[in-house]
């Protein structure tokens, strides 16, 4: 699912104006292998590798949203373990003119079951990468993965 219905309904009222949304990033780690593996997806819209990301639905708990997004996008069941960071992302102008900005909650999660695959059309690939063999990612995602692979620590905040 590309754009949630509740956002489409909001866009009918506000057009392309800035929309402030809650988002999640989930760094799923499989530690059942000799070296930890990280789940990454290649986005269909821009071809970039990222952890799973998504939008929190109205009334949905953020960790539950993250787990739902991982299942929907990569066909993998994961359990969020701890909050890695909270930060503002954007604003982002989409090709259709919509402007959005996100307060993103990034979670470290562990793999429960399932083999990754692009499950919903938002991604062209979904697969495990060795922690020392990650694909190219932007600075924000590199930092998130590094933090999630480290020891459990208080969430990081930008100021």
Q: Outline the biggest β-sheet.
A: 8 strands, mixed
Annotated CATH topology = Nucleoside Triphosphate Pyrophosphohydrolase
Give me the CATH architecture, please.
Alpha-Beta Complex
Classified in CATH, the superfamily is Nucleoside Triphosphate Pyrophosphohydrolase
Proportion of β residues?
A: 35-45%
pLDDT averaged residue by residue = 95
Count of strand segments? 8
Helix content: 10-25%
**CATH class call:** Alpha Beta
Q: Extract low-pLDDT stretches.
A: none
From the helix content, strand content and strand pairing, which structural class follows?
alpha+beta
CA(first)-CA(last) distance = 33 Å
- Radius of gyration (CA) equals 15 Å
What are the secondary-structure elements, in order, as H or E?
A: HEEEEHEEEHE
Shape: globular
Compute the number of structural domains: 1
- The number of distinct helices, counting runs of at least 4 residues, comes to 3
Describe the structure.
The structure is a single chain. The chain has three helices and eight strands; from the N terminus they run αββββαβββαβ. It is α+β, with helices and mostly antiparallel strands and 159 residues long. The protein has a single domain, classed as Nucleoside Triphosphate Pyrophosphohydrolase (Alpha-Beta Complex), CATH 3.90.79. Strands 1, 2, 3, 4, 5, 6, 7 and 8 form an eight-stranded mixed sheet that branches. The mean pLDDT is 95.
């Amino acid at each position: 699912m590309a754009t949630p219905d509740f956002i489409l309904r909001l866009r009918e009222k506000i057009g392309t104006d800035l929309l402030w949304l809650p988002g999640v990033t989930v760094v799923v780690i499989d530690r059942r292998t000799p070296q930890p593996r990280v789940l990454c997806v290649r986005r269909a819209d821009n071809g970039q590798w990222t952890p799973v990301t998504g939008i929190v639905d109205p009334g949905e708990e953020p960790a539950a949203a993250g787990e739902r997004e991982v299942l929907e996008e990569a066909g993998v069941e994961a359990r969020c373990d701890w909050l890695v960071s909270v930060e503002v992302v954007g604003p982002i102008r989409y090709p259709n003119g919509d402007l959005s900005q996100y307060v993103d909650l990034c979670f470290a999660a562990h793999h429960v079951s399932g083999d990754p695959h692009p499950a919903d059309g938002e991604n062209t690939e979904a697969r495990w990468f060795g922690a020392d063999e990650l694909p190219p990612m932007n600075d924000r995602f590199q930092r998130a993965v590094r933090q999630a692979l480290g020891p459990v620590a208080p969430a990081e905040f930008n100021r």
